[in-house]
Structures are given as C-alpha cells and as structure tokens.
C-alpha cells in the first residue's frame, strides 16, 4: 500500500442495528478495491473483519475491526462495528476514531433501535453521517417506505441522493438524484440509461427537498431559493458539502452488498462527500493533570498525539494496541511517552490491520489508523506522545456493566487459570469487569448483557483452555438484632494439667455503628482487665457468622458486665470461647432478623414505556421515589429495589423497551427483609449447611 497524505484518507465507521449487513458491505468494498481476491460470506465464516473464532461460530460481529483499502487514489479505513447492544463498547471504540459514519438500514426491516443508537453515537461524536439502505435485492425490499421512516425519525435533513430502479420487483439500477443520471447494473459494470419516466415525479419531489436543504447552508443560497432562482451545479455541490459536514444534510444511498450492487457508487460518495482527517485543522488535547486545552496541529508535522482506542488480547502474539494518530507522525523503532501511565514505550514494528492480517509499515501519519504489539504499560484510552510535550486526549466513555454473574470452575484446580484468563479479557474489553467478592467467595464477572458474558465464557475456553459455569451471584445479606438481652457464656474444661476457664455475662443490644461496638462495665475485678481484649476478639470473630443463616452481623453493641475467672485455668483462649458461647445464646434470644441490601435504581426510558416499567419495578418489591422528565422524550424513574430482585434486570429491561431503556444502580443501605424472604433464605442456608456436612 502506497503512502497517502492526510487529505487522501477517509476513516469511515459502518454502523447499524444487528443483521443489516455491515460486515458484508466491508467485504464488498475490500473486494472491489482488490484488497482481497475472494468475496467472503458471513454464513461461511470467511469474511475479513469477522475473523475471531467466536464471530465465525455465532455469525455476528462481536468486536470492532479495521480494514484499509485503496480506491481511486484514496485510502479508506473501513471501521466495521458490532450491531448488537451487548457489544456497544466496541461500537464506541470504532466511532471514536472515525471521521464519518455510514448507518446501514435494511430495505425490508427499516429503522430499528440500533439505527437510532447508531445515529445518537455519531451525533455525540459530532461527525457527518450518511444512510445506506441495504439488501435492496431481497424479496419485499421497499426503499420508499424505509426512506420515509428515515425522514420521519431523523428530520428533513435526510435526503435521498439515489433512488433505486425496480423492474418486475427486481433491483436493476440506480438514479443519481444529484446529477440526474440513471445507471443500470450489467454484471460488475454500470451502464448509462435514460431516467425511467415513472420515477420523474419522485425525483422532482426529492430534488425540491434537496434544494431546500442546500439553501439552509448559506444565506445567499437561501435568498436565491426564496426568489425561485435555480442553483448552479457548483452551488449545489458546495451546499451539499457544507451541509454534510455540519450534519444538517444526511445523504441516503442504496444497494446490495451481498450482490455487490451500488457499492462502487457508495465508495465514490465516501471520497466525494465524507471529510478527510485534516478537515478539522486542529486537535484538542489537555495538559496532563490539568484542564488547560491545547490545540494540536492535525498534520504530519504537528506534535505527536496518538490515541489507543482498542486492545486485543492475543494468546500467541500477546497484547496488540490499536490506535489513531491524531497529530504528528508515528514511526517504527521509536520511543514514545504514555502520558496516562507516565511510562515510556518502545514501538518496534508498526502495522496496519486488515481484519487479522498485519501489514507492516514504517510510519503512520496524522489521521491514519494502525497498531503495535507488546506495549507494556499501555491500555485502551491511553495517549502516546512526545515526553517533552506531554498531552492527554479525551477518553472514550464506556457504559457501565449492567449484569453480574458468578463464575464457578468446572474442574478443580482451574482457579488460577480462570483468574489469569479473565484479567486478560478485561484488558481487552473495557465494558467487562472482574471482581473477587471476599464475603461470598465468588468470582463475579460483569458485562453489558447475557450475550456479552456468554461470549466472555466462550473466549475463556477457546483462548485460555478453561471451562466455567455461570450462576446468579449470592446476595450479601446481613443479620442484626431488635432487642436487648443479658446472657451468660461459660467455658469450663478440665482434662489433666491446666484446665480452661472463662466466664462472662454480656449485654447484647442494637448498636448505632455498622459493625461491633464493644464496651465493658466490670466492677470489682470479676474479670481481669487483661482478658477484655480476648472477649472483644472472640465477639469480632463471632459476628462474621450470624445465627439465622450464617451472614455477618451488623449494628451490634456488646457490653461485658460481669463474669469470673480462675487464677490458674483462665486464659485468653478460654475467654474468647466464652464470649462466643454468649454470642450464640444472646443473638438467638435478641429477636434476630435478616437484612437485605437495597439498591438505588435509576431507569431511563421513552415515555411510552413508563407504565410497564413502573409495574415491573413494583413486582420486584421496588419503591418508586420519583419520575423526572429528561431531554428527547425520555423519563427517569427513580426507585429503591432489593438487590435480590435485580440480577437479570438488564435483560428484562431491554426486552420490555426493545432495547431503548437503560439503568444505573448502586448500593443504598440495608433494611429488614420481609418474613417470606427471610424464611426462604434461612431454609436455603440450612439446606446448604446440611449438604456441606454430608460432603
């Protein structure tokens, strides 16, 4: 691949709802440019950008892949992203380094929630976008219906630059609405034909909408439009470029990637209408540890700034860091500075990735995308730069994990391998988290959804050779007491030589602090002071296990009020045991209760789902605290819900809202569990204890 200047680069992100054909479009573009000599298929697992074994097995994209190609003296970096919401982190990575987005919409599926989310991500990133109505050659394809949906959903700035020619329900050609030219498909060629007469009214209608959109890009053009004057081709072209650049005009194209129809024209449009990386002359960064903004020159001659947007955990090569050069030039065999880790990194061989294929390069200039292997101190979201002029680029904001499950090894002795594999996968995926819960002694993995965690488990097996089961996490219940009691604990043992003697009277009552509050009110030396710490220690150890279901005890006050000792047989151990005996007896008499964790939950949904969501939260024993309207017809529902009722909420919410809802959740407090819940938890604890005893 030859060298290109920044003006000859195009970084285009392919986005859509799942199944719209992004990977097939990438494959068609690669094939048309000669980057590949065989047109792979998703169904066969032979595409360039879906190369991971999990992608091949599942026949869907799971991660963002880069595929550069050359078209008419330009280099296009195709960024193929997943369409399924569980892998939104990957989509965020892809859109972060793109200069434009192509949002695919299937010709017989129309606008879906993934279409809306793709649009939102592109708008958030502030990049131009175009729609591609895909799968035009499929039965029941309806361009007009989809086009009307796009206009209704995203506004009048959405304008068809092409409309399909349909003959006998077959997709046979395309009319270029901008240049008023019609082309018919003839194998791999396009043949000029006359515009079909039955399309003329539709073309006139679209051109009028187009003129109006162009007029809104410039005051002089607006004046000309209202006066009924015709625009020159140059004025139209200028207006289109301005409108596309600022997002006020969103072109619509059409075709079929699987049949390679209309793809050549789409690639021409990418070059003509989508911006080069240097369209924005500067790049904004910050000084490390400061909010001071630095303007970097977005050219090969500027100060170096490189953003790492993705990490691949390769079991053979090791860690691969994928990045975009935002300013300056990055060279092979060079040393750079990581301003996040504050470490220097040795860049050995730079390469471009085309799917999994590595193409070595000597340098990467501002605007280009590449990769390097085995960077020791560098992770996703890090900035590489010159140590003399350190800068930090804005990080990608990834969604927080919404679903947690516990991991159990299928084979004994695999724990270490599991931990090592999960840590590697966590490095690769910022939306995936691993945590060891010391209380429940479970390894918890958290992700965006069930499919996300299912893929993690499959990768754990295929990449690191360990199999696990997934179960619901254990709820970290607590126990406490509701009344004050005074009890005796006496440990007396005589078995030759020194015996053991410890004797205490302890008052137990509800405490104000979270853990154990210990006091002593001993009069007359009934228990020598030297044994007070032993009593306290015995109680501290005891509260780790409650009397109802074995959960830790909280909010407990214990006062040592009396007791006795033996001048020879008393010891610290004896008083620890005595304290434990008093504890067991006292808590059983002090009205023990089970406490359950209550979570603060904020659910964000479109207005239309409000009733369903509130009804569902009520079924989960939730208390609705309020409803707050947000921008864009979104409602925030604030509630408190027991943790035990929230484990699969991410999946259920997505199902109830067709993927449009999301939520945030954090621990709020503990409160007494209802009798029916307590009974169930206690019975399960007893059953588990019996099973452990049998083992």
Describe what this molecule looks like in 3D.
The structure is a single chain. With 695 residues, this protein is α+β, with helices and mostly antiparallel strands. It folds into five domains: 6-208 and 248-279, Rossmann fold, CATH 3.40.50; 282-385, Elongation Factor Tu (Ef-tu), domain 3; 403-471, 2-Layer Sandwich (Alpha-Beta Plaits), CATH 3.30.70; 479-590, Ribosomal Protein S5, domain 2, CATH 3.30.230.10; 595-677, Alpha-Beta Plaits. Helix content is 28%, strand content 34%. Strands 2-3-1-4-5-11-6 form a seven-stranded mixed sheet, with helices on both faces. Strands 18-17-23-14-15-22 form a six-stranded antiparallel sheet. Strands 28, 33, 34, 35 and 36 form a five-stranded antiparallel sheet that branches.
Give the N-to-C terminal Cα separation: 65 Å
CATH class of the largest domain: Alpha Beta
Number of DSSP-assigned strands: 36
Alpha-beta classification: alpha+beta
* Largest pleated sheet: 7 strands, mixed
Strand arrangement in the largest pleated sheet: 2-3-1-4-5-11-6
Poorly predicted runs are none
Q: How large a portion of the residues is in β-strands, by DSSP E?
A: 25-35%
Q: Which shape, going by the Cα principal axes?
A: elongated
- CATH architecture group name of the largest domain: 3-Layer(aba) Sandwich
CATH fourth-tier homologous superfamily of the largest domain: P-loop containing nucleotide triphosphate hydrolases
Helix proportion range = 25-40%
| Tally of contiguous helical segments | 16
Mean pLDDT across the residues is: 93
Radius of gyration: 33 Å
Number of domains: 5
CATH fold description of the largest domain: Rossmann fold
């Amino acid at each position: 691949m030859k060298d290109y200047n920044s003006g000859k680069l195009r970084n285009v992100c392919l986005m859509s709802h799942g199944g719209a054909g992004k990977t097939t479009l990438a494959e068609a573009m690669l094939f048309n440019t000669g980057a590949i000599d065989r047109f792979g298929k998703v169904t066969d697992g032979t595409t360039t950008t879906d190369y991971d074994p999990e992608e091949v097995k599942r026949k869907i994209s799971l991660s963002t892949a880069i595929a550069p190609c050359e078209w008419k003296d330009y280099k296009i970096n195709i960024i193929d992203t997943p369409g399924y919401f569980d892998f939104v982190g990957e989509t965020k990575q892809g859109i972060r380094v793109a200069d434009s987005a192509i949002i695919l919409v299937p010709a017989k599926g129309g606008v879906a929630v993934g279409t809306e989310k793709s649009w939102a991500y592109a708008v958030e990133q502030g990049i131009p976008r175009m729609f591609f109505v895909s799968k035009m050659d499929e039965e029941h394809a309806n361009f007009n219906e989809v086009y009307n949906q796009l206009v209704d959903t995203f506004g009048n700035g959405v304008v068809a630059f092409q409309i399909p020619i349909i003959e006998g329900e077959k997709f046979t050609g395309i009319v270029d609405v901008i240049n008023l030219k019609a082309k018919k498909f003839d194998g791999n060629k396009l043949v000029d034909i006359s515009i079909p007469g039955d399309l003329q009214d539709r073309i006139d209608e679209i051109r009028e909408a187009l003129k109006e959109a162009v007029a809104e890009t410039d005051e002089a053009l607006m004046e000309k439009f209202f006066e009924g004057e015709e625009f020159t081709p140059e004025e139209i072209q200028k207006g289109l470029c301005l409108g596309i650049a600022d997002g006020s005009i969103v072109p619509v194209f059409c075709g079929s990637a699987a049949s390679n129809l209309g793809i050549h024209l789409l690639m021409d449009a990418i070059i003509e209408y989508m911006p080069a990386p240097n369209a924005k002359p500067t790049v904004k960064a910050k000084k490390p540890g400061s909010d001071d903004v630095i303007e970097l020159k977005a050219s090969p001659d500027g100060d170096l700034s490189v953003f790492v947007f993705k990490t691949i955990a390769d079991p053979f090569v090791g860690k691969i860091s994928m990045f975009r050069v935002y300013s300056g030039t990055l060279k092979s065999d060079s040393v750079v500075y990581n301003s996040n880790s504050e470490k220097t990194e040795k860049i050995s061989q730079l390469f471009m990735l085309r799917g999994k294929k590595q193409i070595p390069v000597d340098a990467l200039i501002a605007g280009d995308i590449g990769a390097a292997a085995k960077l020791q101190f560098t992770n996703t979201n890090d900035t590489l730069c010159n140590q003399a002029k350190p800068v930090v680029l804005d990080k990608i904001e990834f969604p927080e994990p919404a679903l947690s499950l516990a991991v159990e090894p299928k084979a004994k002795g695999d724990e270490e391998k599991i931990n090592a594999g999960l840590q590697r996968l966590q490095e690769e995926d910022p939306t995936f988290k691993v945590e060891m819960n010391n209380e429940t002694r479970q390894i918890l993995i958290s992700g965006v959804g069930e499919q996300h965690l299912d893929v993690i488990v499959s990768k754990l097996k295929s990449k690191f050779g360990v199999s696990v089961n997934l179960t619901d996490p254990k709820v970290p219940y607590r126990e406490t007491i509701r009344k004050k009691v005074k009890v005796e604990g006496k440990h007396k043992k005589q078995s030759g030589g020194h015996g053991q003697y410890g004797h205490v009277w302890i008052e137990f009552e509800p405490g104000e602090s979270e853990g154990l509050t210990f006091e002593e009110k001993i009069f007359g030396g009934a228990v020598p002071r030297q044994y007070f710490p032993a009593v306290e220690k015995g109680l501290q150890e005891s509260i780790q296990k409650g009397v109802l279901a074995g959960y830790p005890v909280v909010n407990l006050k214990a006062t040592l009020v009396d007791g006795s000792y033996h001048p020879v047989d008393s010891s610290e151990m004896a008083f620890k045991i005595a304290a434990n005996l008093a504890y067991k007896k006292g808590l059983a008499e002090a009205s023990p209760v089970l406490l359950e964790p209550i979570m603060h939950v904020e659910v964000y949904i479109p207005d239309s789902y409000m009733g369903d969501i509130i009804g569902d939260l009520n079924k989960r024993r939730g208390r609705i605290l309020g409803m707050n309207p947000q921008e864009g017809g979104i409602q925030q529902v604030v509630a408190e819900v027991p943790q035990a009722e929230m484990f699969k909420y991410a999946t259920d919410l997505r199902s109830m809202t067709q993927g449009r809802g999301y939520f945030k959740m954090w621990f709020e407090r503990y409160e007494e569990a209802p009798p029916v819940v307590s009974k169930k938890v206690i019975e399960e604890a007893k059953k588990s204890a019996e099973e452990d005893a049998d083992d």
